Amino acid sequence: MAKPVKTFSCAACGASFNKWSGRCDGCGEWNTIQEDKGISSGPPSKSLGAKRGSSLVLSDLSTEEAPPPRSQSGIAELDRVLGGGLVPASAILVGGDPGIGKSTLLLQAAAHFAQKGLKTIYVSGEEASAQVRMRAQRLGLTNAPVQLAAETNLRDILTTLEAEKPQLAIIDSIQTMWADNVESAPGSVSQVRAAAHELTSFAKRRGVSVILVGHVTKDGQIAGPRVVEHMVDTVLYFEGERGHQFRILRSVKNRFGPADEIGVFEMTGRGLAEVTNPSALFLSERGEPAAGSVVFAGIEGTRPVLVELQALVAPSPHSQARRTVVGWDGGRLAMILAVLEARCGIPFAGLDVYLNVAGGMKVSEPAADLAVAAALLSAREDVALPAETVVFGEISLSGALRPASQTENRLKEAQKLGFTSAIAPKGGKASAAAGITLNTMSDLTGFVGEIFGAG
Known about the structure:
Largest sheet: 9 strands, mixed
Distance between the termini: 83 Å
Helix content: 25-40%
CATH superfamily of the largest domain: P-loop containing nucleotide triphosphate hydrolases
Number of strands: 21
CATH class of the largest domain: Alpha Beta
Number of helices: 11
Number of domains: 3
C-alpha cells in the first residue's frame, strides 16, 4: 500500500512545498513552513485528502447590498409572479401540461422584454424556427427584436450564448437538450440534470437570465429529477383546464419574491391576455343561487381571490360511495366529511359526493374548509345560500372554527364585487369592511344549526 504523500505550506504566505525547509522561498520568512494535516480524513481516493483549495471571501451579516435590479416586462401578471420583475443572472423553471400555453406565454414575454431593451435569445428544441415565426405572426410579435434559434445540442447553445452575450435566454424545453458528454438519450434523468446544471451555472457566471421550460408528469410534477427544482431560483407552474379560457401562472418557489403568488391570464385568439381582476372573471359565469354553490374568499400569494365552490350530493347506486374532487385536496374532503358526521351527526354514508372549484382554479389553503362544508350541507339539504354571501374559515378535528389570515383583505375584495355579508370564524384580527355584514361562528355545530337548521 502506497504511503500518503506529505505536503508542507507556509503559514505566512500559503506557498506549498514537497519537503520541509527552514526558510520559505516565497516570502523569505523563517520557521513558517509546517506540515499540512489535510482538510479531510480518510484515503485520498475516497476523500478530499490533504490538497487545499483557495480561501473564501467572508463577510458579516451587517454587509449592506443594494437589492438586485429588476427588468419589467410590461406584463403586470408575469412581473407579479416573478416578484416584481426579472432579476439578472437568475434561473427560472416553467412547467405545465402539454398545450397549456407555455410557449405562447414565453414568446410573448420574450417580445416584451426585448422591446424594453433586453437582448433576448429564444432557443426552441421542440419546434422549427418557421413554426415559432408563425406563432409570432399570429400573436402580432413579428416586429419584436427577439433572436431565434432551433437547436438541441447543449454545447452549441452555450457557445452561441457566450458569443452573443444576451441578457435573457429562453430554452424550450429542457427535456429536449442533449449534452454530448452524457451517454444517455435526450429527456433522460441524466441528460435533464446535466443540461439544467450547465445552463444554471452559465447564468450565474455570465450574468444571463435563463428561463427553462419543463414538461410535467401525470401527477402534475415537473418531469425529471427533483434536483432540477433545487438548482434554479424560481419555479413556476402554468395551470388551467382545457375547457376553460383561464390560465394561472403560480409561483411555488422564488428566491427573489413571495412564493404561492399567482398571475391570471385569459387565452384568446391573439395569445394570453392578462386579467387584472381575477375574482370577477371566476365569478362571471355564476348564475342564480343554487343548492351546493358557495363563494369562497381566498388568498393566493398576496392577492385576494374569490372563487365558486360547487358540491353535489346524491344517493349512491353502488355499495362503495364515490368521492370525486376537482381543484381541491381529496384527503381534506374526507376529513371534512368525517368531522360533519362525528361532531354534527350529519352522515354522508351511502351518498356520492362531488366537489368542484369553478373556473379551473386550484385551491390549497385550509381557509376553504368552512366554504366546502357549507357547499356540502347546501347540496345535501337542497338549500341555497344567499347569493351575496362569502364564506371562509378553517375547521379543526374537534369541530371548532379557526380564524383565517388576512381577513380584512378578503372582506374588502368581497365588498368590491358587491357581496354584502360574510360568514367567518370568531377571533379574526379585522373587523367587517364597510358595506359587509360579518357573521362569526365559534364551532361547526353552531354554523350548521344557524345556517341550515337542525340538519
